[in-house]
Amino acid sequence: MLTFTIRRLVLSIPTLLFISLVIFLLLELAPGDPMAQVPLTVPPDVKELMRQSLGLGEPTHVRFGKWLWQFFIVEPMVLADHLLGTNLAFEQQRVLSWQFRSPVMDVIVQRMPQTLWVVAMSYVVGILIALPIGIYSAYRQYSVFDQTGTFLTMVGYSVPPFFSGVLVIVIFSVQLGWLPSIYNTTLQVVDWATFKQQVMQMVMPVMVLALQTTAQISRFMRASMLDNLNQDYVRTARAKGLSEWTVVMVHVLRNSMIPVVTVIALGVPYIFGGAIITEQIFKVNGLGQLLITAIQANDLPMVQTVTFMIAVLIVLFNIIADVLYGVLDPRIRYD
C-alpha cells in the first residue's frame, strides 16, 4: 500500500503540471484585458507601464514559468518563514493579484476560513443525514419511508443550488423572518450571543449545500446496502443466530461502506463548486465569491491560482479514495 501511495503521488506531479498548463493557456486565450477597468483619463503610456509592471509584456512561456516557480517554490518558502521564523522568501517575488495589488495566497488565506466553515459543516451534516436514510431505506425496501426518501432525494439531487438557495431565503428569511438572508463575515464569536448568530446565519447555506450531498450519498448507501443484504454471508450470519442489529449494522454495513467511502472522498472537491454559487446567493465572503469577482475583474493570477487549487483537491482526493478503497476492502491489494 505504501508503494502504491508513493507511486500515485509521483504520477500526480506531471498530471498537475499538465493541468496547470491547460488552465494557464485557457485563461491566456480568454477575452478581456486587465487594463479595461483603468479609467479613460489615464494616458496610454502610463497604461503601457502598468502592463509592463504586471508582466503582461513578457512571452507566454516566461510568465507560465514564473508562475510555476512562484506557486511551487516561493509560496512554500513563505509558509516555512511563517511557521519557522526564517527568511527563505526574503525579496522573492510572489504571485500578485492584479485586483487587490497584494499576494494571491494572502487573500486566499483570508477568505478560506469562511468557505471551510460552510463547506465542511454542510458536508458533515449531509453525510450524517444521508447514511441513516440510506441504511433504513434499504432495510425497509419499498416501504413508505423508502418511497418517500427516494422521492425527496431525487428532488434534492435535481434542484440546483441557485434555485434552492433563493427558495429557502424566500421561505425562512422573507416570509417567516427566522434566519438572516446575508452572511455576516465580520462576525466574531466571543460569547454565547455571537455563537448563536453564527449558527443562525450558517443554517441556510449549510442546508442548501447539504441537500445535494444528502441526496447523492443516501442513494449510494441504499444501493450498496441492497446489494449486500442479499449475499450468502448475510443468510449465514442470520442462521448462526446473530441478532438483526449485528447482522445489518456490523456485517452488512461494513461491506456496504466500501464504495460509499470512495464516493464521499471523491465528493469533497466538488462541494467547493456548489459553494461558488451558494456564496454568491448568501453573500459569503469566501473563495467562491473571490473567484467570481476575480473573473469579472480579469484578475488572471487569482483565477488561475484558485482554479488550480481546486484541481489539486480533485487529484488529491482521488488518491485518498483509492487508498481508502484498498484499506477497507481486504480483497484489493495494490502492491
Reconstruct the topology from this structure:
Blueprint: H1 2-29, H2 44-53, H3 60-84, H4 104-139, H5 144-158, H6 161-175, H7 192-229, H8 232-239, H9 244-282, H10 287-296, H11 300-328
Helix pairs in contact: 1-11, 4-5, 4-7, 4-9, 5-7, 6-7, 6-9, 7-9, 9-10, 9-11, 10-11
Output the CATH topology of the largest domain: MetI-like fold
Number of strands: 0
The gyration radius over C-alpha positions equals 24 Å
CATH superfamily of the largest domain: MetI-like
Q: Which structural category fits the helices and strands?
A: mainly alpha
Low-confidence stretches: none
* Tally of distinct domains: 2
The helix count comes to 11
In the CATH hierarchy, what is the architecture of the largest domain at level 2? Orthogonal Bundle
The proportion of strand residues reads under 5%
Biggest β-sheet, characterized? none
> Roughly how much helix do the residues carry, as a percent range?
over 70%
Which CATH class of the largest domain is shown? Mainly Alpha
User: What is the N-to-C order of secondary-structure elements (H for helix, E for strand)?
Assistant: HHHHHHHHHHH
Mean pLDDT: 81
